[in-house]
Amino acid sequence: MRRLxxxxxxxxxxxxxLHGQPATFNRxxxxxxxxxxxxxxxxxxxxxxxxxxxxxxxxxxxGNRVTTYVYHTDRPYSLFSNSVQRIVGDGHGHLYLQxxxxxxxxxxxxxxxxxxxxxxVGAINYQRGHEPPCP
Length: 135
Hints:
By secondary structure, the chain is mostly beta strands. The chain contains one helix and eight strands. The strands form two sheets. The protein has a four-stranded antiparallel β-sheet with strand order 1-2-3-4, covered by helices on one side. A hairpin with a 4-residue loop joins strand 7 (102-107) and strand 8.
C-alpha cells in the first residue's frame, strides 16, 4: 500500500491540472487492472486519460478502467518492449515511450505503436517544434 500512495497522489494532481476539478478514486493496483505495481512514469494526456509506465507494459487509466498495452509477436503495431521507463507527449495525439531497448511512438487516435529507435536510450524530453518524422 505504501508504494501505491505516491501513485495515487500523482494521479489526483494530474487529474486536477487537466480539468480544474478533483478526481475521486480509492486506488489503482493490480485488482483494478494495473499490469505491475512498479510504476516508472505517469503522463496525463490532452483527452484526460492517464498513462502509466510499468515493467510489464503501458497502462491507460480512463477514469473507470485500466487498459494495458504489451508486446505481441503477431501484431506489427504493438509495443516492442514491455518494460516502459518514461512517457512524454506532444499534446497533438502522440506519446513517446522510452523503453528497454529503444524508443517508441504511440498514436493516441489509432492506438498503434511505431518503433523509432532500436537501441537503448538514456533519456527522453519533448520540445515543441522538434517532432520526429511519422513512419
